[in-house]
Amino acid sequence: MNTDLSAKKRKSYIEMGEIFFWTATINNWQHLLLKDNYKNVIINSLTYLSDSGKIDVFGFVIMPNHIHLIWRINKMNGKETSQGSFLKYTAHEFKKILKTDMDKSLASYAVNAHNKGYEFWKRDSLAVNLFSKEIAYQKLDYTHYNPCTEYWQLAKEPCDYLFSSAKYYEMGVKNFTFLKDLREEF
Prior knowledge:
single chain, alpha+beta, 4-stranded antiparallel beta sheet
């Protein structure tokens, strides 16, 4: 029997105080995050959690059906983990928007669960500990180039994509108040 604690951790496990690359995906890979109002829900949540000292965000990108964050969880948000609060808050906000949206896509997120009627995020997000400068910068580059890939073609250059931290790192333009500089950590 393996008694190694790390073998029992879920792939979504985040150690408080450590910097992680974290990917959260919309349920069934749906493109919920195409419209800016859904992206702004994510920005608002990151801003709130950062302003309250619960998280530090070093890099991010919001794609049509997933997000990548490079962040550190500093403390719990009440009884919840900060990442749990992020997922819960954004899900509630997505539901509010979809209830008023005319496209009737709320039903595509319906689930038959005892604790909820809708599920917007896939369970067990991916978390990768960024324990070295090389890995951290590789994940930051990956994050910033995601919108430019042949599959997505959302921008020609990373700095051209608004919902990303690329412009901060490449041009020194800080469009998002919650951003902290990863280069100061390594």
